[in-house]
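Students often ask why we bother encoding 3D structure as a string. The short answer is that it lets us treat folding as translation between two languages. Here is a chain of 586 residues written in the first language.
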Amino acid sequence: MDVIATAGHVDHGKSTLVRALTGMEPDRWEEERRRGLTIDLGFAWTTLPSGRRLAVVDVPGHERFVGNMLAGVSSVPAALVVVAADDGWSAQTAEHVAVLDALGVRHALLAVTKADLADPAPVLADVRERLAATSMGEVPGVAVSAATGAGVPDVVAALESLLTGLPAPDREAPVRLWIDRAFPVKGAGTVVTGTLAAGRVATGDRLQLGDREVGVRGVHSLGQPVERAEATARVALNLRGTSVEELARGDALLTPGAFRSTTELDVTLARGGWAAGDDARLPAEVVVHVGSAAVGARLRPLEGAAVRLRLATPLPLRIRDRLLLRDPGARRVLGADVRDVDPPELRRRGAARRRAEELAAQPAGTAGAAAELARRRFVRTADFAAMGWPLPEQATAVGPWLLAPGLVEELSAALPGIVARYRQLRPLEAGPPVAVARRALELPDDELVPAVVRPPLALREGRVVVATAGLPAEVQQAVDGIRDRLAADPFAAPDAEELRAAGLGPRELAAAVRDGQLVKIADGVHLAPGIEEQARARLAGVPAPFTLSQARAAWGTSRRVAVPLMEWLDARGVTERLPDNTRRLR
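And here it is in the second language, the structure alphabet:
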């Protein structure tokens, strides 16, 4: 299916032409038919001779309803510009064309209507010349009289040609369906309509609506139920999980997790009614139009064409979205391209100018994504994709995080210095805890630290350590003395007095345990590495089940050591405690 929107001055015959093309009445409200005036969006469709299905969004032409007009044209790829032969170019025609230009619409057809009332040739020539200076460029033009039917086949043929040249929509893209109507249907519940510009939607899908998810109970397109609709298409979705009262024009149905709602964003000004970079002419407040949404915003010029917007209501936006900024008081419009939906704070003097320079230098596509990732250094992969950036090939993925190319190597090179400084201040500690290393490296999450640890550093018991660092000389000498004694009698754990006499206090003992030179069985009980295997070997010669006294005798040690050692072995699964308090080896 293809979708096209009308544009043009009130009473220039847009709805009449749509009716002639489709055989349908696009004006939905009784007041519209009574007054002969399109107030809200109208919709009609037809099948062209080639078999192409065409949906037409008929927008209001009166200046008072320009907001409704914007809701109709923002999501469609092409426009049908309508100008009456007996009136010609008007102020409202100019405003509608300025909107299309600001939106960057590149595909259009000019229909000069009421050709039975006046010579259409001068209007055709004049309007085509005016359109040539816009984003639409050289536009084909057709003279038509909907009243007599003359020229209607020519409009149909021109539409066929126009639609053939439209770029293919991205049907693999996530869904962002801007709602332009919401209404109840008896027996079905809530129904919403919109133009599906990208992606696909099917019965049973779950879509995000604000901060909750809703289910798609059914899909209609062009008045018929379908299992699935693909872009570009006019669709009506029967929703489960929401009521009409909870919906409004401008809400968006989204693929869950695929978009980032934002209230602050950086944009660069494009074509339109204001001169880009003319800060004095930019209003402090504008209305931002995107899709069917219209949201108030405060505008802060940065420098040149760069502008920061602060929205009154969050919108689900992505990089490269085209917005339309409107100054309702002055009837001026301006296109703006979204450059950042999560911009940095501007606190220091000159920050706005530097930010504008960054935006001006930012390339497009994957090169732009690499530059943006380099600026951020690290970002959650899902967030980066939701911003609209492609994933740079050279980036490093660590769990849910994405790190800029070369950042892992940079941080790995900095980490040994951090560990050395930490040990200089705390010689009895093998190295900084992971959380300390993460803060020193200015990383957002502890889970990123293992990715930057390289030999001779290692992770040990939640710390970043030098694998061969060892203990301070005086502490090592004391530990060696204790281990010499344990080598002769492995279960004769020195008591607290002996440890103090050797110069081993709690901190020194903890350092020896972290370094793997002693094993802490319990408070006040330290033995040499390998004690588990030695204890098992001694118990293997004792008939099972055995008592604590039998184990103590096999080990040749005191109850002070035997009790915690047995409990330690129980906890490690070496021994099993039986109901009668005897044990056996597992």
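Translate back mentally: The chain has 17 helices and 31 strands. Keep this in mind for the problem set.
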